[in-house]
Amino acid sequence: MKRSARGAAPVTVHLPRRAWPRRADALPGTSVRVVVDANVAGADLYGGVIGVERGATIPLHWHRRGELQFVLEGRGVLLHPGGRETRVRANSAVFSPAGRDGAHGFRSTGRGPLVILFIYRAPGGRRPAFFHLQPRHAAR
Known about the structure:
This protein has strands at residues 30-36, 45-52, 57-62, 67-73, 75-79, 85-89, 93-96, 104-108, 114-121, 131-132. The chain has 140 residues and is an all-beta fold. The chain is globular and about 45 Å long. 20% of the residues are buried.
């Protein structure tokens, strides 16, 4: 079997949904199940599925890495800095670039939860940092 540059044997993993570990530090009104992280040999991604309960919000935030989000179920809005909102629903794809300019959040507005697959490039499968968007201070 060919080995990766780090020596880990390549693997293909199939885990049924019930086997996805829960992330204990999920935001209020959300649940996060991790699909790929540092526990998967050879992982160079970090990703999972987040469920946002009806009426709950993931606040504006950003990461040092770009993030792909794909809505699997439900309806909601993508939150942008400055108060702009974009409607999303099942099969909506969102890419949030790295840095403050890629700040984003979500609010569930449908009858059920908004369910989003999220994926980041992440060397070693390490979880990317999460930064709440803080308003920029006005120049004096």
